[in-house]
Amino acid sequence: MRRNDGTPTPAAQLAKCLAALPPKQRTLLRAVRTALRKRFPTANELAYDYGKALVIAYAPAERGIDGLLSIRASATGVSLYFNNGPLLPDPKGLLRGSGRATRYIDLESASRLAHSDVKALIAATVAHAKVPLPREGKGVLVFKSAKK
User: Fold this and answer.
1) Helix (H, G, I), strand (E, B), or coil: what is residue 64?
2) Are the CB atoms for 66 and 130 separated by under 8 Å?
3) CB of 49 within 8 A of CB of 147?
4) What sign for the dihedral angle of Cα 102, 147, 44, 32?
5) Which residue range forms the structural domain that includes residue 72?
6) How many domains, in total, are found in the chain?
């Protein structure tokens, strides 16, 4: 899949990155991506290739800084990152990490997204968003190479 100018489409670039993941992580990432796309149909998917990890952020525009959530997949597993993580209520202590802006949970299966505590974290992330998601429309996939 190529554009008229000969460059690969975002979908083709993403497919190449997915192919580099181990089968277990690839399958899990696809399932989580499907669930988040269903939950956030107006969000843009911003895909970043970091070489050893693939990150897909869900954002109202094409700026990753405005993203709500991100999926990170690597050979070691799949995680869901929450922007504004330090501000989120986490009474069950699910969130991991100590970054200034994000926290994450490890995902063993996509069904974890349906757990009430995880749904509450997702809802809190949406509530804390600096830029809200559009109410209408359909988000697009944007591939942003982050390899150095």
Assistant:
1) helix
2) yes
3) yes
4) negative
5) 10-132
6) 1
CA separation for the pair 19, 148 (Å, rounded): 20
Which residues does 92 contact at the CB level (< 8 Å), separation at least 6?
117
- Cα–Cα distance, 95 to 38 (Å, whole number): 23
Per-residue pLDDT of the chain (148 residues), as tens digits, is 656 677 889 999 999 999 999 999 999 999 999 999 999 999 999 999 998 999 999 999 988 889 999 999 999 999 999 999 999 999 999 999 998 999 999 999 999 999 999 999 999 999 999 999 999 999 999 998 765 5
Report the relative pairing of strands 77-83 and 141-145 from DSSP bridges.
Answer: unpaired
Look at residue 5 and tell me if it is in a domain.
Answer: no
The CATH number of residue 38's host domain is 3.90.1150
Asked whether residue 89 is assigned to any structural domain, the reply reads yes
pLDDT at 65: 86
Q: Which residues pair with 37 in a beta bridge?
A: none
CA-CA distance, 25 to 56, in Å (whole number)?
14
The DSSP secondary-structure symbol of 74 reads E
